[in-house]
Design goal:
single chain, four-stranded antiparallel beta sheet
């Protein structure tokens, strides 16, 4: 019985290691591009990085509310990256410290996803928490 379990666990890891899913560096570069777009006020470019599988206007409203409360990001630092491949595709969870033009700092979590069908990685969540603001999404 133990041998069967060991073989199944080994096969799961082997299959995951052989996958064609994008590496975490792809998600990290998208995050850099995202923060650059926000810092430059290029909302259109930032919105193109988000998943289209949300209600229309959700991410535009998120960016508007965050910008009104905090301003533009002026600096950011990546704290950690976690990848998770549950059943299909891969999630990338990136935690950041960010500074904003309004003078506040924030802890942020940016979650990206690749569906496993292609190499496209999109933002599916952006959580912002500062002393006086928490994003409503």
């Amino acid at each position: 019985m133990f041998n069967r379990i060991a073989v199944v666990v080994f096969m799961m890891f082997a299959l995951q290691a052989c996958s064609d899913l994008p590496p975490k560096e792809v998600a990290e570069q998208i995050a850099v591009d995202y923060y650059h777009a926000l810092a430059q006020g290029d909302t259109s470019r930032a919105l193109h990085m988000f998943s289209r599988k949300q209600r229309p206007g959700k991410w535009a409203e998120h960016l508007k509310v965050t910008r009104e409360a905090l301003g533009k990001p002026t600096a950011y630092q990546l704290k950690s990256v976690v990848t998770n491949s549950p059943y299909r595709g891969r999630f990338y969870t990136l935690d950041f410290n960010a500074k904003y033009s309004g003078g506040q700092t924030a802890s942020e979590t940016l979650t990206l996803y690749n569906n496993g069908d292609d190499q496209r990685v999109v933002i599916v969540s952006h959580q912002v928490v500062s002393q006086s603001f928490k994003s409503p999404l």
